[in-house]
Backbone:
């Protein structure tokens, strides 16, 4: 069957499904960038972002992807030759560390494996060992999109405090913002980075950096920050162009305005609860399939899993074959096993991911699970029975 009718469903962990309201908002003629509605809406847009991040501090927007947000954050808090500690739970934890190394920053890795969050005791011990206070920041992912591991950010903050260390806590929320509960101020986060294409439901192209007064003070002591990455003018602009160090990303901003209106209309608590319930349905189905076959959730403990993305292992070659079947026969695109390759499975063909972030509801999740069930049947993959019933019960 090749999809002649209906819409395809992009169930990868970003770019996520874009709401019609966002698409309509972006489908318009180019606006005036010097006066009128675009400059006028920027203060409320920034406030809307801060409400999603749960912060009263600073929010900035960069034209770029998540990697750009990584570099922007680093450029304001560390110099060449400085040292950071990188908490690594997967491909994206390693990625942020590599960006830091590319800036001439020394990275001390705290490798936590691919299945569990960082332990506060391990972070505290690493910081206590830094007798000279060389570590300027702790970098970690709230959710590593490759493994679906969710770190306990409040626990990491407590570990930094218990060690009596002055390091900034910098958190990557690219996968989690607007999906998993995140409390920037309450959890003591100094710097947070995010991007537009996941929980915020806007096309790729915007990166966000949020920062506290403590991080701002560190920036003010820097010898220099490149004009483009400097978050100072962006956080206290006198004209529209200063938000972006140049021309505004006009149509992305209209899409962002629409998405923020949707998020705040639903309410952050309701958004988090919806993602939790939908994730529970996926986990229930996957656990049931796994009772009679090779499918396993990458993260064994539910409390350690993201509610935005689920990473799964199903055995060498089966993951890729299943993705090919669901895309070609059912119009469902699943995520690749990013960064999960090993000696036995170098191309990570035994892994796949389900993205369930942003503009997603129960019928979409049940449709995706039904398509996966059909793919497993078509490929004659052993599995437990009753997975869809289990998912439906989790949604009831």
Residues:
């Amino acid at each position: 069957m090749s999809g002649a009718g209906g819409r395809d469903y992009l169930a990868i962990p970003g770019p996520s499904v874009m709401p019609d309201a966002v698409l309509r908002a972006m489908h318009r003629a180019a606006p005036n960038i010097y006066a009128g509605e675009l400059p006028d809406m920027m203060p409320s847009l920034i406030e809307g972002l801060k409400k999603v991040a749960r912060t009263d501090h600073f929010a900035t927007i960069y034209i770029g992807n998540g990697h750009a947000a990584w570099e922007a954050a680093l450029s304001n808090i560390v110099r060449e030759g400085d040292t950071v500690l990188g908490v690594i739970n997967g491909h994206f934890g390693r990625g942020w560390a590599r960006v830091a190394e590319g800036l001439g920053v020394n990275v001390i890795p705290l490798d936590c494996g691919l299945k569990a969050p960082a332990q506060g005791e391990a972070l505290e011990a690493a910081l206590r060992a830094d007798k000279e206070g060389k570590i300027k920041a702790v970098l970690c992912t709230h959710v590593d999109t490759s493994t679906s591991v969710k770190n306990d950010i409040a626990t990491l903050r407590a570990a930094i405090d218990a060690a009596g260390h002055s390091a900034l806590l910098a958190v990557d929320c690219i996968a989690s913002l607007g999906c998993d509960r995140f409390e920037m101020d309450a959890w003591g986060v100094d710097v947070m980075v995010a991007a537009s294409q996941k929980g915020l439901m806007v096309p790729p192209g915007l990166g966000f950096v949020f920062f506290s007064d403590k991080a701002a003070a560190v920036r003010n002591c820097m010898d220099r920050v490149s004009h483009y990455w400097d978050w100072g003018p962006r956080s206290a602009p006198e004209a529209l162009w200063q938000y972006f160090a140049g021309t505004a990303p006009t149509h992305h901003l209209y899409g962002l305005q629409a998405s923020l209106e949707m998020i705040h209309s639903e309410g952050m608590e309701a958004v988090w609860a919806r993602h939790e319930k939908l994730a529970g349905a996926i986990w229930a189905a996957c656990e049931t399939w796994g009772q009679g076959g090779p499918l396993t959730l990458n993260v064994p403990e539910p409390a350690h899993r993201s509610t935005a993305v689920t990473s799964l292992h199903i055995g060498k070659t089966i993951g890729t074959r299943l993705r090919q079947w669901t895309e070609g026969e059912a119009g469902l695109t699943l995520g690749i096993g990013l960064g999960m390759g090993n000696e036995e499975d170098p191309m990570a063909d035994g892994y796949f991911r389900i993205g369930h972030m942003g503009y997603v509801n129960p019928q979409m999740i049940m449709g995706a699970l039904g398509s996966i069930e059909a793919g497993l049947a078509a490929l004659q993959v052993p599995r437990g029975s009753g997975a869809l019933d289990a998912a439906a019960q989790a949604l009831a």
In short: The mean pLDDT is 97. The chain has two domains: 20-264, 267-395. The domain at 20-264 is CATH 3.40.640.10 (Aspartate Aminotransferase; domain 2).
